[in-house]
Design brief:
ten-stranded mixed beta sheet; 30% helix; alpha/beta; Rossmann fold; 32 strands; 902 residues; flat; 21 helices
């Protein structure tokens, strides 16, 4: 099985949950009767009594008595009005107090609900449900995220239950209940009863706090709960920090067979017939022997003792077996960093551990040795789900360099970035699978400050990408060439040659793109342009010709506006040829523009029309002067800035001087897209020496089987059926093989990609430095009765037309035969040239071409033809009279060394 290296990024924690107490305000009290209110009611009565006495005194006039009656009536009316007003005022004041308090409770209820949501989100993030573990492993960024120094290391979820609100609600100090306004007092009590606890939150236990834990209850439920617990530990803790060992009876073995896939159960340095020995046994005593080296030297367990962060925590699962009475695992004191989980189907009759967990199909009860009891619902996980999850984890291994707590300083190899496993096992059937529109032309180039992959998306902004064109600037030693190799190789590994092609150009002729020409994606590798500037013009013609070719393809196919419409029509079933996207990577473009300033016009042309033609431009350089990109800046939508020589160059590339202050660590850089904030990253490395599987096994000191016959892979020990051969360890004095001669990761992956897809259309044809052979101009030469050695179906038959050479057409990206037509009045040829210019070669080629395409009865020659004087097929030669009888199927029979017709 190939391994996938896991480099844990710095841990991402959920949003902080508020924990401050919330002291509630007391509800309002009932209003009390006041003396002033009573006096106010008695005063009108007293005044009425005085008026009655005055108006009804003896000898008073009738008019006075009438006025007295009026005064009495008005006094009574006023008294009644004052009493009603007083009573209504008290009730209104109480209603206002009630309304204000209920409004306060509403605001507090919303705050408590927000706190509960944050608490729930944080708890479910830290302790995901067993059903979500597979997605966590598939996503990858949180696998084995807990380090031994984390506060929640060793915590494992066992179920769901109520928990106190993270922001405790403290009841207020109030008056006696009979003095409180009843509506608001009842509302406060209901509010506290509802929001003081949060239902269905993960219930987690810390294995560091308990040495022995018993898990008992209904048989199926208890084993399903034990599977969920073990699977959660395996997903969130690395095998370097936590070891899982299982001892079970024969009847229970089938329930734990799935653990054979877990990296946590592999015993380092121990091997059997199936490879690494699993920490699985039918006997607790045997399991203790397997763990002896890890158990020795550990102090006695103490719940308040300092955790052993330098040693892995060992979780021993016992199902149906018991350790021997005098064994370490049976010790009542226990060992620090060791937790024994006893799975007891049915009732718990024996001694229970420090933590007793009793489960039924719908109930969970936790009881600690201190008498604390918690109740909830147990987590369960089916055997099939646990087995599938363990198989997901099986190929994962921790990186040899440990954690990437500082991912911007750690080295990151290319296979680890893309999750490819071993470079020599890259499978294009998997990596070239059809990609969604969002994933097309999207590839990681390194990792960011959080350890997550930093993606470069070459699609245009209208397709939610960063492209189509960009700029990369980096000083000598900044890792620019390595970044370009990483980008090109990453795109080639993830896209087939039918969807993506490259033109790779290096003005200075360095080794940036060395070894990449064999990939089927490569349409051209152009180097050493600085040595011959005519090649720059030739490259310009080739690229302009490619732009024109694509425009003509879109027009001839149906006047498509752009390549995206063309591709949609092709995918919909239109009979169209695939037109792959083309990525032009030009290294040291700044020096190219210095030598050929007018080349900027071609870059601007690509920037203007490349988007619609599927052409993407990436310009790279060690230096960038102000104004160098005149007219091109608006087309470069993304910028990559590695460490620069000066702050001015950083500002020219990124708009800020930050790239100048990057550390001297190759691959450190910034990625800037549009107006977004720059992203700091560390590029991956593709030029490291590739280590084969045998070399890795030798480094680990493991045996290499000589006879690899198939065996049944089981959790229990598999007998050795082969003779293990341990590779000889290299001594310190032994000479080391030069890594410069070893294959790099790039070399291995390029070989895996070679000839795996259709070859790219060749955009670049090298100059005609070597003359073509005549048989290349006349392919398919064969004996023809009556004509001798000639080309059957020769297109110039019956005419005095012969091929003399090749016509170089870099703009049209092809070479055509140079035909010379001697028919008619203009059938003459004059050859001019100085000494050693090839005049004689041309004459020989002409005569030999005639000899291969025309019979002696059709043409003859006069003058000096010493080049073919010995050829009997040429009229006028001394051997021409003997031609009919001297001819053989393989030539003229004379075989003159100077005769190109033979």
């Amino acid at each position: 099985m190939s391994h996938i290296i896991v480099k844990r990024p710095p841990r991402a924690l959920p949003s902080e949950v508020p924990t401050e107490e919330v002291v509630l305000q007391p509800p309002p009290e009932l209003p009390r009767g006041q003396q002033e209110g009573a006096l106010m009611q008695l005063l009108p009565m007293l005044g009425m009594g005085g008026s009655v006495v005055f108006f009804f005194m003896p000898n008073s006039q009738p008019f006075m008595k009438i006025m007295g009656m009026v005064m009495v009536a008005s006094t009574v009316a006023m008294s009644v009005a004052m009493i009603v007003r007083y009573r209504r005022g008290s009730q209104g004041q109480l209603a206002d107090l009630r309304r204000d308090y209920l409004r306060y409770l509403g605001q507090t209820r919303r705050a408590a609900a927000r706190a509960a949501r944050k608490q729930r989100d944080a708890q479910y993030y830290l302790h995901p449900s067993p059903e979500q573990l597979w997605a966590l492993v598939a996503e990858g960024s949180r696998v084995w995220e807990r380090r031994s120094g984390d506060a929640d290391f060793g915590q494992v979820r066992v179920g769901l239950g109520p928990q106190a609100l993270a922001t405790p609600l403290v009841p207020p100090q109030t008056a006696p209940v009979d003095q409180l306004e009843p509506l608001t007092a009842g509302a406060m009590q209901r509010f506290l009863a509802t929001h003081q606890t949060v239902e269905d939150l993960p219930m987690a236990v810390s294995l560091r706090a308990f040495y022995r834990m018993t898990l008992s209850g209904e048989t199926q439920t208890v084993r399903a709960c034990a599977r969920a617990l073990t699977a959660s530990l395996a997903c969130l803790h690395s095998p370097e920090d936590l070891v899982i060992a299982v001892a079970c009876s024969s009847s229970a073995a089938a329930h734990w067979e799935w653990t054979k896939w877990l990296p946590h159960t592999q015993a380092p340095g121990l091997f059997d017939g199936a490879g690494s020995r699993r920490l699985f046994s039918r006997s607790a005593a045997e399991l203790e022997e397997l763990l002896a080296a890890r158990l020795s030297g550990r102090p006695r367990f103490h719940p308040e003792g300092a955790p052993l962060t330098e040693e892995p925590h060992i979780v021993v699962v016992l199902d149906g077996v018991s350790p021997p009475p005098m064994s370490v695992l049976a010790s009542a004191e226990g060992l620090q960093g060791v937790t024994v989980i006893e799975v007891v189907p049915g009732e718990l009759n024996g001694a229970r551990g420090d933590l007793a967990v009793a489960v039924q199909p719908r109930t969970l009860r936790l009881e600690s040795g201190h008498g604390l009891v918690y109740e909830g619902t147990p987590d369960v996980l089916s055997y099939e789900s646990a087995d599938a999850l363990a198989r997901q984890l099986a190929p994962l291994r921790m990186a040899s360099g440990g954690d990437d707590d500082e991912p911007l300083l750690a080295n990151l190899e290319f296979p680890d970035l893309l999750g490819l496993g071993d470079a020599d096992s890259v499978d294009t059937a998997r990596t070239w699978r059809p990609r969604s529109a969002a994933e097309r032309l999207r590839v990681p180039i390194g990792v960011g400050e959080d350890g997550r992959p930093v993606m470069l998306d070459l699609k245009e902004a209208a397709q939610d990408g960063m492209g189509p064109h960009g700029l990369c600037v980096g000083a000598t030693g900044s890792g620019k060439s390595e970044l370009l190799r990483t980008l090109v190789l990453g795109l080639a590994v993830t896209h087939s040659s039918e969807t993506l092609n490259f033109v790779l150009a290096d003005f200075k002729g360095g080794a940036t793109f060395a070894g990449m020409a064999q990939m089927p994606h490569v349409a051209a590798v152009i180097t050493n342009l600085a040595d011959d500037l005519t090649l720059v013009d030739r490259m310009g013609d080739s690229i302009r010709g490619e732009l024109n070719r694509r425009q003509e393809m879109l027009r001839d196919a149906g006047n498509y506006a752009n390549i995206h419409d063309y591709e949609r029509a092709r995918l919909a079933g239109a009979p169209l040829q695939p037109v792959p996207s083309l990525v032009l990577v030009i290294d040291e473009f700044s020096e190219l523009l210095t030598a050929k300033p007018d080349f900027i016009e071609m870059f601007v042309q690509i920037g203007r029309i490349g988007r619609s033609l599927g052409v993407h431009l990436l310009l790279a350089s060690q230096r960038l002067e102000e104004g160098r990109l005149r007219g091109l800046e608006t087309y470069l939508s993304y910028r990559i800035g590695l460490r620069t020589f000066s702050a001015a160059e950083s500002r020219a590339a990124l708009g800020v001087p930050d790239a100048y202050h990057l550390p001297s660590v190759p691959g450190s850089g910034y990625l800037k897209f549009g107006t977004d904030e720059m992203t700091r990253f560390k590029a991956a490395y593709v030029s490291g020496v590739h280590r084969t599987g045998a070399e890795r096994s030798a480094a680990l000191g493991g045996p290499v089987p000589v006879d690899r016959r198939p065996v049944l892979f089981t959790a229990a020990e598999v007998p050795v059926t082969y003779a293990p051969s341990v590779p000889a360890q290299r001594s310190a004095s032994a000479p080391r093989t030069d890594d410069a001669l070893a294959d790099t990761v790039l070399d291995v992956i390029v070989r895996r990609l070679e000839a795996r897809g259709p070859a790219a259309h060749q955009v670049w044809l090298p100059p005609l430095d070597s003359p073509p052979a005549l048989d290349a101009l006349l392919p398919g030469l064969a004996p023809v009765p009556g004509r001798g050695l000639t080309r059957p179906g020769y297109e110039g038959a019956g005419r005095l037309v012969v091929p003399l050479g090749l016509v170089d057409k870099p703009y049209e990206q092809r070479r055509d035969p140079l035909w010379c037509d001697f028919s008619g009045a203009a059938g003459h040829l004059q050859i001019l040239g100085g000494p050693q210019s090839g005049k004689s070669t041309l004459v020989r080629t002409l005569l030999a071409s005639f000899a291969l395409t025309h019979t002696p009865g059709k043409c003859s020659s006069t003058g000096s033809t010493s080049a073919v004087a010995a050829c009997p097929r040429w009229p006028g030669s001394p051997m021409s009279a003997a031609w009919p009888r001297a001819w053989t199927p393989s030539g003229c029979g004379v075989r003159s060394p100077r005769c190109m017709a033979c």
